[in-house]
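Entry 14. Ran structure prediction on the chain below.
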Amino acid sequence: MALSNILKEPRRELTEQLLGTIVMGVAIVGDYGASVWFEKATVPIGTCPWPLGMVLLPLLAILVGLFLAAAIFLTHVIGELIADWMADRGWDPRPKRRY
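Output, structure tokens:
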């Protein structure tokens, strides 16, 4: 299902989004733990000079926007794959009745 189908089948789409959000949340927590370990395991290099920050900040803002759009899409795709996998094994978290 496409996320644009949310008006016709909101419960189904929100269930898929929730499943994807749970999986992405676990991945983010794991990534955070790995980055904290890496920070403690390495020696700090130094700080970033402010002119470089002025150039990189607008680029970073664009990248964050693209990342958020991709994260929403990927979260839904992951949730849909999990819901399909569960349905193949006899337990479909999505409603059977469609409106």
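The CA atoms of residues 33 and 70 lie 22 Å apart. Will compare against last week's run tomorrow.
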